[in-house]
Design goal:
single chain, alpha+beta, Nuclear Transport Factor 2, Chain: A, 36% helix
């Protein structure tokens, strides 16, 4: 798995990494279909509590996270474990061809499944060539 940073004692197995990426893919696909219920179901209980309804969740993603809502392309990058936090980085390109990085915080649920507990979307720094 390219870019996998996973300390031996992190408690995150290769199967977990696969499941985390599957959850994120399913949520992105739900956004593409405007499936508010499907996307909301993949969010952690804390995220669900903050937004209250699937429709409010989808509207926020549509308005503030366009690159995640409708990515032209996306590819999984590093998965990093920092203490109790598991963060999956994704390289995205939006519909206008602009590059983005999404940092998905993932949370293991009591039943062992994974859900998205947050997403930070940033544009990579541009470098100047000399």
């Amino acid at each position: 798995m390219p870019g996998l940073a996973q300390p031996a004692d992190s408690g995150v197995s290769a199967a977990d990494v696969t499941e985390i990426r599957h959850v994120i893919e399913r949520q992105i696909e739900a956004f593409r279909r405007d499936d508010a219920q499907g996307a909301f179901a993949l969010a952690s209980p804390g995220v669900q509590e903050v937004f209250g309804t699937p429709e409010r969740f989808l509207e926020t993603v549509r308005a503030s996270y366009r690159a995640v809502y409708r990515p032209a392309t996306y590819a999984f990058d590093d998965l990093v474990v920092i203490g109790a936090d598991v963060v999956q980085r994704i390289a995205l390109t939006d519909g206008a061809g602009q590059p983005w990085l999404a940092y998905y915080a993932m949370q293991r649920q009591r039943d062992g499944t994974w859900r998205a507990s947050g997403c930070r979307l940033v544009q990579p720094a541009k470098t100047l060539s000399t």
